[in-house]
Design goal:
Elements: H1 2-9, H2 21-26, H3 33-42, H4 68-105, H5 129-137, H6 147-153, H7 176-182, E1 191-198, H8 210-214, E2 219-224, H9 235-247, E3 253-258, H10 267-278, E4 282-287, H11 293-304, H12 309-314, E5 332-334, E6 343-345, E7 376-378, E8 397-401, E9 405-411, E10 417-421, E11 428-432, H13 433-443, H14 454-458, E12 465-473, E13 481-485, E14 489-494, E15 511-519, E16 525-528, H15 534-540, H16 548-553, E17 556-558
Parallel strand pairs: 1-2, 1-4, 2-3, 3-17, 4-6
Antiparallel strand pairs: 5-6, 7-10, 8-9, 8-11, 9-15, 10-14, 12-15, 13-14, 13-16
The protein binds guanosine-5'-triphosphate and magnesium ion (MG).
Region (Disordered): 38-67
Domain CP-type G: 176-352
Biased composition (Pro residues): 45-55
Length: 559
């Protein structure tokens, strides 16, 4: 460095050495100037500047202007850096491509996608050695259903979640990170993404991070299980509500479909949208665990099989569906389309913030609603058949939703009602807040279930997290909001219970409601605009007022 300084100071420039440094500062786009000067000095000294530099020189013309040597050196450096990046990128691409191919080359159970194995009888993918050899000889490995899937198909609830009281060989359970890694090739390929969201757990199962997986690929958004919505629900209102909620998530959604794999509502619409958007690409069905991906594929094949012999053939080896999250364990490739491109079922993403992540695996089926939701309302309306009618004014009371959640009513309007929408197996119990702690300790595992036994209650996390909710509302004639509990359902909060707008007695009252929600620590609670369900929903729901431009840019919804 001393040599460098010496060189500069011995140049013919009349300016002292340090007066050149301001020039260096003006050359901000060349931040490596000082080291470049060092190199130049050390290797090939450049001739002195012919004209005396002024104190304010235009950028890139002073003594520090890169010489051809500098430029050569800089280009060499950037070329070698680029070569390194390209080499690494090629390596990653090759790895990704191999990874993507891997799941198509390894023989997997067609029901769950777990790699076939003959050694661990208690692990997913197990098939006895003779069957395996026989099928292998006949090139029929793709027709094998593993031991766990056979149990599932006979109605057994076998979760694949290892170390959670579930399937003892459940080490093949895939974490959200592993799944992302497995599907990371998607954002670099041209594929069509069909993203599924469960209407009963809209916020908990939404999986906004699908954006990272999908890249720039288009997304068809499919809302599943709409057959479970309360009787009288107008799907037009639900469609508008869903699109409004989705718009906020900023996804590349082409269209929204309200579907039921049970009643086949909306499935035909998704098929024609897939045909329109597919353009020879592979189609990936993505979503959180248990949202109904495999059931949706079965429904898709069922309808497509009516016209398409390829889909009819694919129906023979359908993916397994079951009420336990973690049914599908690996990507399953299905040759479902005549015109090229395959359909892929994928394992569900297990989100840590859903109730399914914290309860005992044997209790998981109790989180899955089996039939149409019917709200449990508190205080009960007069003609309601609810057995536990409770008090008329909720202030000072606590409501337990099974053993999984507790809502303390701190301050609400005297006639506020709370309506619980979720699995029927979870009953709601109400006690005064003063007795709530004792009641919970005494009744957990007995009447407050799940956890479904005193034994299981011992290892229960408890409701350690308390979230204070201050809910503002403007119009007491419609619900103020929904309190959605991830993986469970939601509670509609109606400030005074008069959701019938024809009721002119209702005083228009704006205000604030104060509630406290107690949950297991990882479980999330979402406050959202109320979902317009039941006959009343249609009456109070107000469609979004949109400009023409907004109308055009929003995805359309179908059912
Ligand atoms: N009522 C109703 N139930 C459904 C519907 N779709 C799926 N289910 C039920 O939801 C549960 C989960 O369905 P699956 O298809 O196994 O869900 P999945 O998303 O593939 O689950 P994983 O493979 O574990 O990620 C099963 O009990 C299905 O019967 C639907 O449209 N309506
Ligand atoms: Mg599945």
């Amino acid at each position: 460095m001393a040599g460098n300084l010496l060189f500069l100071s011995s140049s013919s420039s009349p300016l002292p050495l340090f007066s050149n440094f301001p020039n260096l500062q003006t050359l901000a786009p060349y931040p490596r100037k000082i080291s470049q000067i060092s190199c130049r000095a050390a290797s090939s000294p450049s001739p002195p500047s012919p004209s005396p530099p002024s104190s304010v020189e235009p950028e890139g013309t002073g003594a520090a202007t890169p010489t051809r040597g500098d430029l050569y050196l800089e280009r060499q450096q950037s070329m070698s850096a680029a070569a390194l990046v390209l080499k690494n990128r090629d390596k990653t691409r090759r790895k990704r491509r191999n990874g993507a191919k891997m799941h198509t080359n390894v023989a997997c159970c067609y029901g769950c996608g777990a790699p076939l194995q003959t050694t661990e009888i208690d692990a997913p993918g197990y098939v006895n050695a003779e069957t395996y050899e026989l099928k292998k000889r006949h090139h029929q490995l793709r027709t094998i259903l593993c031991g766990r899937c056979k149990l599932l198909s006979h109605g057994h609830m076998v979760t694949a979640v290892g170390g959670h009281g579930g399937y003892s060989g459940g080490k093949q359970f895939i974490s959200a990170e592993e799944l992302r890694e497995k599907l990371s090739h998607l954002c670099h390929e041209k594929v069509l993404i069909v993203k599924l969201v469960d209407i009963v757990d809209f916020n908990g199962s939404f999986l906004a991070r699908v954006r990272d997986l999908a890249g720039a690929n288009p997304i068809i958004l499919v809302i599943t299980k709409v057959d479970l919505l309360p009787r009288g629900t107008d799907l037009n209102c639900i469609g508008d509500w869903v699109v409004e909620a989705t718009t906020k998530k900023k996804l590349n959604v082409t269209s929204v479909h309200l579907t039921s794999s049970k009643s086949l509502v909306g499935i035909a619409g998704v098929i024609s949208e897939i045909q329109k958007e597919k353009k020879g690409r592979d189609v990936y069905i993505l979503g959180s665990a248990n949202v109904g991906k495999s059931a949706f594929i079965n429904a898709l094949l069922k309808l497509m099989a009516r016209k398409d012999p390829v889909a009819a053939a694919a129906q023979k080896y359908e993916p397994m569906q079951s009420a336990v999250p973690g049914t599908t364990l690996g990507p399953i490739q299905i040759e479902a389309f005549q015109g090229g491109g395959n359909l892929f079922d994928t394992p569900g993403v297990h989100l840590h913030h859903r109730q399914a992540a914290v309860i005992h695996s044997d209790d998981l089926p109790s989180l899955a609603p089996q039939s149409r939701l019917k709200g449990q309302t508190f205080p009960a309306v007069q003609n309601d058949t609810a057995t536990d009618s409770g008090p008329v004014d909720l202030n000072g009371f606590s409501l337990f939703w099974g053993g999984l959640a507790r809502i303390d009513v701190i301050k609400v309007l005297p006639r506020t009602r709370l309506t619980f929408y979720g699995p029927k197996k979870l009953k709601v119990h109400i006690v005064s807040t003063a007795e709530a702690d004792e009641f919970y300790q005494k009744e957990l595992g007995i009447i407050l279930t799940p956890p479904t036994s005193k034994e299981r209650a011992k290892s229960w996390l408890g409701l350690q997290a308390v979230k204070q909710l201050n809910i503002k509302f403007e119009d007491a004639r419609r619900p103020a909001c929904d309190i959605a509990i991830s993986g469970l359902g939601w509670i509609a909060v109606e400030p005074d219970g008069a959701v019938d707008p024809s009721n002119t007695d209702v005083e228009m009252e704006a205000g604030e409601l104060h509630l406290a929600v107690h949950l297991p620590k990882p479980v999330e609670v979402f406050i959202r605009p109320p979902m317009p369900v039941g006959k009343a929903g249609e009456k109070w729901y107000q469609y979004q007022e949109l400009t023409e431009k907004e109308e055009e840019s929003r995805p359309k919804w179908f059912y």
